[in-house]
Every structure is written in structure tokens, then in C-alpha cells.
What we know:
- A hairpin with a 4-residue loop joins strand 4 and strand 5.
- The protein has 26 helices and five strands.
- The mean pLDDT is 96.
- It has a three-stranded mixed sheet with strand order 3-5-4, sandwiched between helices.
- The two termini are 43 Å apart.
- The protein is mainly α and 585 residues long.
- It folds into three domains: 142 residues, Oligopeptidase f, N-terminal domain (Butyryl-CoA Dehydrogenase, subunit A, domain 3); 177 residues, Orthogonal Bundle (Neurolysin, domain 3); 194 residues, no CATH class.
Amino acid sequence: xxxxxxxxxxxxxxxxxxxxxxxxxxxxxxxxxxxxxxxxxxxxxxxxxxxxxxxxxxxxxxxxxxxxxxxxxxxxxxxxxxxxxxxxxxxxxxxxxxxxxxxxxxxxxxxxxxxxxxxxxxxxxxxxxxxxxxxxxxxxxxxxxxxxxxxxxxxxxxxxxxxxxxxxxxxxxxxxxxxxxxxxxxxxxxxxxxxxxxxxxxxxxxxxxxxxxxxxxxxxxxxxxxxxxxxxxxxxxxxxxxxxxxxxxxxxxxxxxxxxxxxxxxxxxxxxxxxxxxxxxxxxxxxxxxxxxxxxxxxxxxxxxxxxxxxxxxxxxxxxxxxxxxxxxxxxxxxxxxxxxxxxxxxxxxxxxxxxxxxxxxxxxxxxxxxxxxxxxxxxxxxxxxxxxxxxxxxxxxxxxxxxxxxxxxxxxxxxxxxxxxxxxxxxxxxxxxxxxxxxxxxxxxxxxxxxxxxxxxxxxxxxxxxxxxxxxxxxxxxxxxxxxxxxxxxxxxxxxxxxxxxxxxxxxxxxxxxxxxxxxxxxxxxxxxxxxxxxxxxxxxxxxxxxxxxxxxxxxxxxxxxxxxxxxxxxxxxxxxxxxxxxx
Length: 585
């Protein structure tokens, strides 16, 4: 099957189970709100109140999120599914109704002067100590009860709606490629085609299609970023980046160390890009349309079966548990593999705690890059499998560590593939690895720079497509330098990336760089320590919802607050670059 199976969630929107879930969710929200309104007025019986609230919240979230995911997953592969859209809107409205009870709890907990003592004397509270302490620390960013409720409702017709507009417009955009109408995902997949004429024609077709929706999507981006700026100012965050760092449970100094190391190592990546451009016959740097061009004599195309078998074999070099998880994903039809009309672009993995399963969406086209994407998303599923062993309240992990298992799994597949490859195939695999690393370091840096400028300029003016294009080109020139041909960049890179259109999650770019380099550091330790280190990695993944990123890293003996750590991880990539340069002399 090329499509996923969602029956473990619900069999249809008309099913008794789904309809009952809607009714049950309403009742549970009402019950929780009534409980919170009565309980959180004094500190009497505080331990019992906390435990009762968390139990009720977890039960509610299991039902609500299960139904929400059914709607969202259906819509992600069929943008014109009006039934899914209608019910998703319903679930969003229900979710907004949980704001009052959550706000009451979040304001009450910090008033408990003896919280530390309560935690020390109760084993159940010890399980959620980090969660409770985060509530205390985050209380300074809360608004009044009425304001929180109002904002929650307004966001449904604000940033959430704007994000859905971007998703629908890009999923349904018709691209004229050589007289044939195809989807945006399909034309973008051609960027890794063997034929240079196909790659350039696809790039030109993609650029020609974007103006049809650019104005509308620009409005969406303005709406999202404007809302975030307003809320950050109201809540007391210095900036959207300040909020993103707080949400990531990391120190600013850690992010600063990461970004500075990335900037320092840019010249190494530029060498790789220039060499690739030369090998493809370009004299003025690599044009954007050839960034994903396959290299080497071995440009094998994979069927879905071949891709999954390849992943099974390579995952087995890490642990039987990882291989078994990947086999389960295939056998139980967790994966929606290939592009089709109305299906959104890119790839994602959704961990669903209530059924202890994940669902993966990709736009697999048969390239080795597609195999790596599958490995990446299966890494997210493996992280989910570990986090399912924890309480739901402890299962929410942050952006940077979210990309750790996925990038680690990419590294497993790439390194295992490199190990026994002949020279021609080694160049192909090595270049594929560098292609990914360059995206995650150089392109991510350009997106980080771009998003910062968008937030800054949006404070004073709305941004039209021309301005956004110019800002994106400027950011790409800053990150890529002269390694790319400046006559062939991608001005519309702001339009096709859904990450920019999430009101509750800004700067969803640096976590990818964090994940790559953190995973490189962990993988280096795995090579040294071998099988005994696997359980440490599993522990790290399980605890990602219960610690700061710095403390999570310390579980495996890594200090990520230092430039030395990030430099050492980047040195691993530099070795790959040097090998590529040597093999392609």
C-alpha cells in the first residue's frame, strides 16, 4: 500500500466511535473546567488537586488529540476534503475551550509556597517535577484568564487559519511543466532528477507557478508573524526568538554557540558547493536548481519495497529495536509514501500517544534522498516509541531534541551505506550526505536570518511578495556566499515552507541544525561505546519531555553549551567534505 491506514484512530468521520469522541470531549472539557474553577481558589489539599487535574487532563488529551489527528492527517493528504476540514475546525474550537482550565492551573501552581516540599513528599508529583517547575517559571508570561481565553479563540481565525490557507494553496497549486499540469510536490521532486534539462525546466516551472498564489500566501505570512509579534509583546518576551528559545527549553548561550559555529564553518560548505558546480559544468557557482542534482555514476532508483528493505538492513546495525519499529511502521501501514493531487508537500511524522503509534507522510519519488527522508521520519517514530513509555504529561518534547532521533537515523543509514560502497557509489552516497548537511547548516542559516528579518520588519510594515523575495535572496547570499550562482537562486523559498506559518512555533529552522550536530556528537559516542550506549540513547529520548536540552545532553556526557562541542560535530562533516573533494579531483 502506498497510502497509510488510519483505522487505528477511526474508520470514518461517520463512525459511532468518532462521533462519540466529539461528545465525550465536550463533556470532559466541561468537567475539567468546572473542577479547575472550584479547586484552584486555595491551597487546601494541593497534592490531590494537582494529581486530579493531571489525570483529568491526560484522559481528555488522549481523546481530543486522537480525534484531532484523524482530521489533520486526512486533510494533509487531501486538501479538498471538506469533511476533514469541517471536523478539524470543530476540534480546534474544542481545543481552545481547554484554555481556561489550563490557565487557572498555571496561575494557581506558582501560588503554592511549599511546592518543593509537596514534590519531595509525593512520588506521583516527583514524576512531574519538571513540568510543575516549568509552569512556575512560565507564569510570568501569562495574561488574565479572559485574555487567554479570547486569544485562544482568536488564534483559530488568525494564525491557525492563515497556516491552513498556505497549506491548501501550495497543496492545490497547479504547475505547468512542459505542457503537463502537475502538483508543486511533483515538480519539486524533479530537482533530484538525473537529467539536467529536467531539473532546470522544473525550476523554471516552479518559479513561474508561484506568482499565482504569492500575494495570498504573503498575506498569510504577514498574518502569522504579525500575530506572534503582538503576543510576544503582550506576554513580555523580548522577541519571537526569545519566545522560541524559551519554548525550546534551552539557554540563549547554547543557541548563540550553535549559530556562531555554523557561521565559522561556512567556507567548508562553500568548497563542496563550488566543486559540485564545477563537476556539473557550471562556471559561476552552483545554480539553485542543481543543489539536489544526483552525483556519481550510481544514481539508483528505489521502489518502496527496496527503500524499506535498505532501511531495515541499516537500522539493524544500531539495534534490533530500531529495525523492529521500522518493520512495524511498514507492516501496519503507518506510512503514506507518494505524491498525489491535494497532498501537501514535504514530509512529517505524527506521534499519537493515545494509540502508541505514529503516522508518517512523505513524497517519495524513488531517489536515495527519498530513502534518507524515510529514515529521518522513522527516526521521529522511534522517538515516539520511546516517549510512549512515559506519562502523557511528560511526553511533550521541544523543537531541538525533536530532530535528534530523526537525524541520528539518517546518519545510521548514510554511514552504513558508505562503509562498503565502491568509489562511484561512495561519491553518490557521500554527496547525498553532504547535500543534507548543507541544507541543515547553510540553508537553515539562511532561513534563520530571513525569519529574524521578517519578524523585525513586520513590526512596522506589511511585507509584500517583492519584499519577501528580496529578503530571501539577501539571506541566501549571506549564507551561501559565492558558492551559488546568484542569477539562479530561490526567491520564493518563504512561500513553500510550512514551518513559517505556525503561530505557536517560530524559528522552526535552527532545531534542524541542532538535531544534525547533536546527533553527530551522539553517533560519535555510539561508535566508541557500541551496543551498551544504545540504552543511554533510549533514556535520552524518553527524558526529552522532562529536562532542558542541556540536561538531556548531559545524560550522555555531552556539554552542548560550548562552542567546542558544536565545532567537533562540524569537524565530522568537514571530514566528509574533504573526502568528497579528494574523490572528485
